[in-house]
Amino acid sequence: MSRRGYGQDCSIARALDVVGERWTLLIIRNAMIGDCRFDSFLNHLGMARNVLAQRLNTLVEAGIFERVPYAFRPLRHEYRLTARGRELAPVLTALMQWGDKHLPGDGPPPRVTVHATCDHPVEMVLVCSACGGPVPQDEVTTRPAAHTHCPAGSPAGSADAAVHTAPAAAAVGAATGS
């Protein structure tokens, strides 16, 4: 797997090593709505063939896609999301809803995320793992884990520092398609 080498002990930096390149989340988005063949990605996304091949190889290597043959003469594969890949659905839903709110297009959004059972819109909601209740964004912070090594000079790395907090952007929610 290619590494950018952010040089940080950070879950976000490690995730961006896999999904942070241009086009990658759009490839995953298309796969989530059933578009999972190489030529289809090319046609719908309009990206260069070599870039698509490299992104797909990275996603297969990271366990987000699995390559599955669908034709044998000539041999052709489709790229199916694994459980790990499907777990990116809340990330894409949150990004899509943020874009709809803060960067709207001229008309209605091209896709909406709905509950498959009742067809009503789905909202991304933060949920407390202990009590199960919804948590407003202004009541969410992050803090160093007990084993985290913070960069020198950061507030959390200081011996006399209290817990350093910042707004978090964690979301628990529904499946997506943008």
TrEMBL record:
Pfam families: HxlR. Keywords: DNA-binding, Transcription, Transcription regulation. One of its GO terms (molecular function) is DNA binding. Residues 10-107 form the HTH hxlR-type domain. PANTHER family: TRANSCRIPTIONAL REGULATOR, MARR FAMILY, TRANSCRIPTIONAL REGULATORY PROTEIN. This is Transcriptional regulator. It comes from Micromonospora deserti. The lineage of its organism: Bacteria, Bacillati, Actinomycetota, Actinomycetes, Micromonosporales.
